[in-house]
Each structure stands twice: as structure tokens, then as C-alpha cells.
Amino acid sequence: MRKQNTILFYFAVFLFLSIFLLILGKTGILNAPSGFISKIFTPLRGIPHSAVYKNKSLDVDQASQLEKLKKENKALSDQFQVSNPRSSTLTPATVIGSPSFIPGVTFPEELIIDSGSADGIKIGQAVVLGSNLVGTISKINSSNSKVILVTNKNFVTTGKIESGAIGVIKGVGDGIEIGNLLLSQDIKTGSKVLTKGSQDLDGSGIPPDLIVGEITSVDKKASSLFQNASIKSYVDFSKISNVFVITK
Amino acid sequence: MILPIIFFLIIIFQSIFLSTPLFFSLFLMYFILTKNPTVFPIVFFYGILIDILFFNTLGITSIYLCLFIFISSLYSKKFEIQTPHFIFAFSFFGSLFYLLILSSPFAIFKSLIISLFSIAIYYSLVFLDTKKIRTSFTK
Fold this sequence. Notes:
The structure holds two protein chains of two kinds. By secondary structure, chain A is of the alpha+beta class. Chain A contains three helices and 14 strands.
């Protein structure tokens, strides 16, 4: 009986503390401490992630460090050579985690990057690699952010095809589709799909003319109201190590 | 001392590679073996850490784990909980509701994985002589 009372006491105390933290968290007061704790774990998460998904060993001798720096440098120089999006509005970030992705079993749908609100990142901003759309920022703290990829089932945006057709781009888990295309539109495989743009007044959102991918197949039935098409992105989401966030 | 390190490593591993809440199995097994009220501060602090690393609403995992462990304790008053049936059922439904609250995809599949993981831990401990391990936990 005494033990049960002790359990009840501990339960009540920590439940109350948890509810109190929940309420405090909603006010935003705990963003800074959360970001600080997240920052402590960032290097710890980055090492195994890059070791597993980049086929690198954990041997941190000079040769591996040099290889890593070369890849980061190449990613940066490739990014800043493109004209869309403008390089002055980009914040570089390193991928430190991709929970829910197991190679050969599941497809990547989310990424965690090592930049947060302290770097000027806001929820809804687009994440790119070159001129390719990777995803959008869904959650942030002061030092890290969560990115939902274009393949995520919760990802939706408007897009346009080279032929001029406008449709709705959505993730389907293992790929991307564009739907709500008029039957009268002539959609060809190999056509590029671009974003139509959905930015807010403060600049957050997806800018127009970012590459989503190319059409690989068309699903057109005379009995349907619209036609759909499957899209293959030029980005291999399972091998991303560096991305860029469009911050303005 | 080893146990907090194991919890910590599992959570870090999970935050990098998985969205399956393996910590469910660990916390449940810890409570089942020890029936120690100190599980509540443990799940509280680790719940906060999980919410920070996974960008969940801060406090939600702690609340859920406290409730989950408390319901297990209520169940233990009437029934024997150190059985594979209880462990499997509680792991499955506990993790399923948690994943549904967080709108995690493949919730049923992940819950099944967690249940099997819990059963695997249970039988491993039985093999290693549960009594000895329970004694070492309560030291």
C-alpha cells in the first residue's frame, strides 16, 4: 500500500511538471534552452549519420577530413554558381539526421539540419540543393531544424510543367506526383516540373521556378476528371549531406 | 549507472536513424522488473530529451510516459505483469497510441517492432536469470 502511494506521489509530481513544461513550451520561453541542448547533441548526431550514409569510415584521419571538406566546398561552389535561387539569400546547413530512413527498407521523408532560428531560419522556408527543391522547414529550435522532403506525404505545393500545365505537387512516400492536371493538357515524359511559387509577404515559402524533377510516367484516363504524373527528382535524398535554406 | 547510458545511447541512435520509439520497451521493462517509483523522474527527463531531439511539443512524451507507467502500475495491482502477454500487449498498444498522437507513419508496423523488441528483451533477461538482474537494478 505504501509503495502504491509512493508511485502515486511520484506520478502526480512528474505529471504536473510535464504539464507545466508543456504550457511553458507553448509560450516559447523554452526555445533557447531547447536549442542549447539540441546544439550539444548536434556533433554527436552528425558523426554517425555521415559515417553510415556517405560510406565513410569513422576514421577521422587527415585524408577523411580532407575528403569531407572537398565535398562541402564543391557543394558550396556549385550552389553559388546557380542564379536561381540568388546566392545572397541562402544559408548553408549540414544534414545531421534522417529519422525514419533505413536504407533498403524505408524511404527518407525528413531530415534534421544543424541550422536553426539563430541562423535566421523560419518555419515554411524552402530548402534547396542547386536549383532543386529538397523540401521545406517544418519545425525549428535555435540550433536545429526539421525539413520535410518533397517525398513526404504531408508535402503539398503548386507546380508547373514545361508545357505550361499547372498542377498540385505532393509527396507519396517513395516518390513525388503531380496531380489535378487537366485532361486537355499534353503531358510528356521527360518534361521538367518546376515550382509555381507560394511565398508569403515576409518571403517565407517556396519561390517559383525551382526544379522538382522530371516526369517519368503519366496516368491519363478518359473517365477521370484530371490526369496525374509521377515525378523523379534529380536529387538522391538518401545521400544528401549539405543543403541550403532560402532565408529571404 | 549502465542503465542511464543505455537509455541515452538508444535515444541518440533513434534520433539519427529511426522514428520507432524503442525507449518504450526499455522503460516498460525497467518498471516491470523493478516496480520502482524512480522510473518517473527517469521517464520525465528522458521524455524531455526525446521531445527536444525529435522536435515534438515539449512535455508531451513525458506526460504520455508517466501515464503509461502509472497505468502499468495499476494493472500490476490486480494481475501479474512479468509475463510475455502483458509485455507484448502493453508495448504494442502503448507505442501505437503514442505514434498516433504524434501522427507518425506506419504506426502499426512500428508498434509491432517495439512489441517484438520488448519480448526479445524479456526473454533475454529470463535467459540471463531475471532475479539477478532485478537485484542489481535495485541496488
